[in-house]
Amino acid sequence: MSNTPYVEAWLAGPDGHSFYTRTYHATYPKAIAVFVHGFRDHISRHADVHAAFAKRHVTIFAYDLRGYGRTALDPMNRSPDASYGKTTRALEIKDLEWWIKHVSETNKRLPLFLMGFSGGGGLVLVFPTRTEAPPSPETIALLNGVIAISPLVELGVPAPKAARQLVKTVSAVAPTFSFNPPLPPERVSRDPAVVASFAVDPLLKTRAAAQAMYEMLIQGEEMLEAGWKRWPKTLPFIMLWGTANEVNSPKAGIDLFDKIAITDKKLVTYQGALDDLGHEIGDVPERFLDDCVTWIESHLTRQQPPPANTILGR
After folding, report:
1. Least packed by Cβ within 10 Å: which of 50, 60, 230, 289?
2. Coiled-coil regions in this chain (predicted)?
3. What is the pLDDT along the chain (314 residues), one digit of tens a residue?
4. Pairing of strands 237-242, 265-270
5. Residue 45 and residue 51: Cα distance in Å, rounded?
């Protein structure tokens, strides 16, 4: 019998696109979460964290996003049209809805949560605030809550105006053209082993496609400007930040947290921690896991929408 803490599978997503997936099954599950990894990231890097969730009775379903990880780079199983960075925000949202519905259908008795890290944290915040489908209201209604880990709302170090304009221009005419935006691993974690792993991980690339990069940035800004007003009144969320995050801006994230006008929301901060809370030094990973699981356990019953004739406040 295998000691591997997960079941891996290549599954067909929207338009038959082939995705690399992992499911970390809890022996006695209380809930299940769909996990969305960060920009230029991949799910295998989070194996230890996801296994820890499963030991705490939370099953994790994770997939390498279109354009990243094995979904983009596996020579034997990737789709013929797959390549690194080849994606759009619209496709990411379409894909995410697909996997939420898939997980809901295959785990009907389990409360369902949406969890995203860094760039994926930004995506899970944008997801329920779209002005049109996808996702459908029915898909959003499947969720018991959202877990946003170090979410990208704004970059920790803003891109120079000239560089930003260049990316915008290139994204319009050559969307898959690659840039090499700087992301020193020392900004991701204070753990030397994590930092060293970036140099030898073949699935972590330094390049990023223009369109994917630009859309990710502008949608975070739109969330601060207007998207927060569209957050569903009955969708709880928790936001978790390292106070010293240099990849994404804690200030922008907390500003967004404050703007979203619901009562069932929680903000957790970790003094001195950087972006990857599950791979930090000291007791941060254990506290992070406990904070997430405790919050999930307190939201196993889904909130019900108000009656149709109820007038909601702003």
Report:
1. 230
2. none
3. 357 799 999 999 999 999 999 999 999 999 999 999 999 999 999 999 999 999 999 999 999 999 999 999 999 999 999 999 999 999 999 999 999 999 999 999 999 999 999 999 999 999 999 999 999 999 999 999 999 999 999 999 887 888 888 888 998 898 888 888 878 999 999 999 999 999 999 999 988 888 888 998 899 999 999 999 999 999 999 999 999 999 999 999 999 999 999 999 999 999 999 999 999 999 999 999 999 999 999 999 987 665 544 444 33
4. parallel
5. 12
CA dihedral over 233, 223, 70, 10, signed as positive or negative:
positive
Nearest Cα residue to 234 out of 300, 295, 305, 296: 305
Q: Which residue has the tokens 């260049």?
A: 166
Site of tokens 């007003």: 229
How far apart are alpha carbons 77 and 20 in whole angstroms?
8
Q: Which domains, and CATH codes, for the chain?
A: 7-297 (3.40.50.1820)
Burial class (CB in 10 A: 0-12, 13-18, 19+), 266: middle
What is the Cα–Cα distance from 107 to 105, expressed in whole angstroms? 6
CA distance 84 to 86: 6
Q: Which residues pair with 269 in a beta bridge?
A: 241
pTM: 0.94
Length of the chain: 314
Provide the pairing of β-strand 58-63 with 18-24: antiparallel
- Smallest CA-to-CA distance from 29 within 2, 56, 62 is with 56
Chain position carrying tokens 């004739």: 309
Structure tokens at 43: 């799910």
The one-letter amino acid code at 142 reads L
